[in-house]
Each structure stands twice: as structure tokens, then as C-alpha cells.
């Protein structure tokens, strides 16, 4: 047991001290800080000056209502009536006197039309804003000419009241589903990234030790099975350290910016209003999912003796987690479908799909217990098989070209 903890500590500390791990954490923390202060950062780069637009109104009727409409909707856009010619206005835009030039005229149906001129049209926010205001003025003029009352028109275009109500007492409301969907998406994405990242880390760590012949020294001092589980738990602790750091920093950022973020992205994800049971399920399925895929990664990594061969043998595992993720993305819109229900009991898909279901639906307790039981049993079987493959795989050197090396690893494990 002493040797187990030594290998675990060595795996954790070695990976923790690597430049790639430190740089990744720094970049991630900078990203979290930037996300929390996004509005302030954007404000530093935004031009605080008003966008002045020259307007040549040939109709003599559109400019005033357009100016009032723009003033009510855009604080940084100022319309100024232009008395010169269109060519003179274009020249002044080119010289930087105006942000843009808007020419307004009447078409054959006696309705307004406009031409927008600017030095660059890559940024379309200003032109789209003016187009929307012009559209409202055109509708008002057209309805007036047709003798349609403006109040009646507004009533026609008013959205129809439409409320969705679940009949089951335990079913979630539309608001609760929206909140749960955000958290489920975050956890699914975290699980997807974590499995690929830490699974590759385990496989690369084993392959690196075999390449440098360190594995031969480790085998003589600790059993291969102890090594495998020590590495799995060592990388797990590393992952918990990383995720814990992100969660703490993210929570502090959210707490400090709570007032500014109300109604923004954090309300959309609904993190503050989710039930504690959903968080508990998230932790349970996250841990079970990691253990399942980490055991598979260690088993695959033991078959490789060259670092460049790791990705080739890791592809089956990556495909499994990708398929689970894609099904989960589909299931976000139809979590109650039979397809999602059935696949949520497949061990390699359970961490994502069963969590998707418990997060968005009222799933019977026996189904959740059954899925967890299947996962625990699968982890146990995979660990037993993985231990045998690992025991023989660490003794294998040379190019690992396919999964046929499993048979060879099992044969070697019987001799060792």
C-alpha cells in the first residue's frame, strides 16, 4: 500500500509541475477573468464618441420621425440633416467628418427608400439599426395611406399568448427546464473535455514511462495493478485540483459581478436556481464517467511503447465519448425520447445521458439506481480486465498497431 501512495504522489506531483499544466491553468484563469469582466474589456476598446450620420432627406417628411426613433433606441447614434449634395456628403464621409451618409427618397408607390454609404460596411450594426427604424416608418406610412388604424395594426402583430403547462405534478415547468438545460450542457461539456484530456494524460504517462524504460524499474518495486490504479487516482486528483481551482475562481468572479451579470449569460445557464439533487447527480456521474474511461485509457496506454502510437489506440475511446456527447446534444431538445432512454443504460453513454435525463426529467429512482449499478459493475469488470491487460501490456515493447495486442497482453499477464 505504501508503494501505491508513492506512485500516486509521483504521478500527481510530476504532472502538476509540468509547464503545459501550469500554462493551461493560467490561460483558463485569464479566460474566466475575461469572461467575468467582458463588458469592461469591450468598453476599453469601444470608441466612446457618437456615430454621426449625415442624412439627406429628399422627402422632407422622414428625417424627423427617423431622428426621434433612433434617439430612443441608440444612445451613440446621432442623425444630422445634411443640406449639401450627395457627392459632397460622400466626400465628407471619406474625410472622416461623418461616420456614414444616408440618402432618403420616395419610390413609385410613394413609400420611403434609402441608400447607406460608409467607408467600410464590414460592421453592419449601424446600417441594420437604421434599416429597422426606416422599416417601422415605412409600415406606419403605408398603413396610414391604406386607412388602417395604427392601434389596430399593433394589436394584429401582438404575439399570441401561448403557455405550456405540464399535467404531471412532478414534471418540471418550462422555466425549470430552461434552467436545467443550461447546467446540463455545462456538465456534459466538462465531462467530454475532462475524459479526453485526462484519459490522454494517463495513456501518455504510461507510454512515456515505457519509452524511457522507467516502467522496468517501477515493475520491480510495485505491482502493475497498483501502478494502474495509482495513476488513475493520481490523474483524478490532478483533475479535481484543476476543476476545483476553476470553480472557486469562477464563483468568486460571479459573486463580485453578481449585479452586473443579472439577466446575462449566468441567468441563462440557471446555475443559481438548480436543485441540490441535480448537483449531486452531476458529481456522481462525473466521477463514475471518469473512472470508467480512465480505466479504459490506462488499459489502452499499457499496450503502447511509443508516445506517437498513443493517439491511434485511443481513437476507439474518443469515438465512444464523442458518440455519447452527440446523442446528449440531440437529447437536450428531446430528453424523453425512447432512443435517449435506452442509450442511457449503456455504460459508456450513461454518465452523459442519464445525467441529461435526471437533470431535465422526473426519472424514477429505480432507473437511476439501475444505471449507477450497471456503471459500477462495468467499472469493476473493466478494472479486472484492465488489470490483466495492464500487467501484460507494460511488458510489451515495439509498435502497437491494433487492438489485437490485447490477446498478447493477456497471454503475458498469465506468465508474469
UniProtKB/TrEMBL annotation:
Keyword Chaperone set for record: no
Chain ranges passing through the membrane: 21-45, 183-207, 228-254, 279-301, 313-332, 338-356, 368-390
Segments forming domain ABC-2 type transporter transmembrane: 19-387
Keywords noted in UniProt: Cell membrane, Membrane, Transmembrane, Transmembrane helix
Annotated membrane topology: Multi-pass membrane protein
An example molecular function term from Gene Ontology annotations: ABC-type transporter activity
GO cellular component, as recorded: plasma membrane
Compartments in which it is found: Cell membrane
UniProt cross-references to Pfam families, sorted A to Z: ABC2_membrane_3
Protein name: ABC-2 type transport system permease protein
